[in-house]
Amino acid sequence: MNSQVSGSSTYRSLAQQQAVVSRQLDPASLPRFTQVCGASDMVSTELTFGLDDLGRTVVEGHVVTQVRLGCHRCEETVSRQVDATFTALIAFSEAQADNWDSVAPGTDVVVVSSPNVNVVELVEDELLLALPDRVCIDDDCPHMPSMDYGIDGKGIDKEAEPETDVDETRRYPFAGLKDAMEAGGEDKS
Ligand SMILES: [Zn+2]
């Protein structure tokens, strides 16, 4: 449990000092992140603390790492860079966060569990958000539907099915659509 900057650093004190905290996080200290991405290099984090006009603690963060994601379609492991920047207010309770959000909806707020700095707490959600939606880029994966709109929204649940038999229907999900378009549209032959 080495995730704290130091025993006595609080978000307030770092903000008042406008401190910049750089850490290399062992992926083992990011259990939710490593559960999703499987394998990762050390995670470089740089956090800049400060106070806003209202005296609230603000953190600007930059996280970078290299992950190896397993594609659930082709079972290849693909190396991808994760690089995220974020700016958030630090709230010390849900009530405080809700209050800020009611004044300025859409404000990015991280609710922390303790006044003491915990880098993992600040960056893990951001890392999860920064993971690519898709592992293989179109041509790399033989099982990737060829059109982008197959990935958006409703397609996700279906793609989460166990990858037992990948049949022709899965590989060419738009075959029917293409026929329909050709029947009703331009004749390309
Ligand atoms: Zn793939």
Radius of gyration: 22 Å
How far the N terminus sits from the C terminus, by CA atoms, comes to 65 Å
Helix vs. strand class: alpha+beta
Q: Into how many domains do the coordinates divide?
A: 2
What does this structure look like?
This protein is of the alpha+beta class. The protein has two domains: about 10-140, no CATH class; about 145-185, no CATH class. The chain has seven helices and six strands, in the order H-E-H-E-E-E-E-H-E-H-H-H-H. It has helices spanning about 10-15, 30-35, 95-105, 120-130, 155-160, 170, 175-185, and strands spanning about 20-25, 40, 45-50, 55-70, 75-90, 110. Strands 1, 2, 3, 4, 5 and 6 form a six-stranded mixed beta sheet that branches. Mean pLDDT is about 80; it is low at about 1-5 and about 150-175. The protein binds zinc ion. Zinc ion binds near residues 71, 74, 76 and 141. Zinc ion binds next to loops.
Give the arrangement of secondary structure elements:
Blueprint: H1 11-17, E1 20-25, H2 31-37, E2 39-40, E3 43-51, E4 57-70, E5 77-91, H3 94-103, E6 109-111, H4 119-130, H5 155-159, H6 168-171, H7 175-184
What structural keywords apply?
189 residues, alpha+beta, six-stranded mixed sheet, 26% strand, disordered N terminus, binds zinc ion
Produce a short descriptive summary.
It is elongated, with a radius of gyration of 22 Å. The chain folds into two domains: 11-138, no CATH class; 145-184, no CATH class. The chain has helices at 11-17, 31-37, 94-103, 119-130, 155-159, 168-171, 175-184; strands at 20-25, 39-40, 43-51, 57-70, 77-91, 109-111.
